[in-house]
Design goal:
- The protein is an alpha/beta fold and about 130 residues long.
- It has one domain: Rossmann fold (3-Layer(aba) Sandwich), CATH 3.40.50.2300.
- The chain has 5 helices and 5 strands; from the N terminus they run βαβαβαβαβα.
- Strands 2-1-3-4-5 form a 5-stranded parallel sheet, with helices on both faces.
- Helix 2 packs parallel to helix 3 and helix 3 packs parallel to helix 4.
- It is globular and about 30 Å long.
- The two termini are about 25 Å apart.
- The N terminus and C terminus are likely disordered.
């Protein structure tokens, strides 16, 4: 992982436009470069095309390809990005399914910089929006 936030590349994967905007705003405020995908298939396609991300914020429930399926495929592709599940799901079985797919961490959304700063290696720049 990069040592400064300015060089961190993040992919925000969520079918909810508002959540994507919130997560991108939080990351951009910390100087993190962001790219967006609206479902797991788009995330897999981006990584297949050679895009490299330090961190991927992955929603659980999405059309076309959900978060656990996309995460499983990314791990099978040997994608080394830190994958953080961002979910509103509260059922333990669903969260466990997501973790079993290869997540590094699972957090409740919407995410704040405070929630993800230690996970993605940010230093004392934790500002809550």
């Amino acid at each position: 992982m990069a040592s400064t936030s300015a060089s961190i590349q993040a992919l925000v994967v969520d079918d909810d436009t508002m959540i994507r905007k919130i997560h991108c705003k939080v990351l951009k405020k910390a100087g993190i470069n962001t790219q967006e995908a609206v479902n797991g298939k788009e995330a897999v396609d981006l990584c297949s095309s050679g895009a490299v991300f330090d961190v991927i914020l992955m929603d659980f429930a999405m059309p076309i390809m959900n978060g656990p399926e996309a995460t499983r495929i990314l791990r099978e592709m040997k994608v080394a990005s830190k994958i953080i599940g961002a979910t509103g799901q509260s059922r333990a079985e669903e969260i466990q399914e997501f973790k079993d797919a290869g997540l590094d961490e699972c957090l409740e959304k919407p995410l704040t910089l405070e929630k993800i700063s230690s996970i993605i290696g940010l230093r004392s720049r934790t500002q809550v929006l």
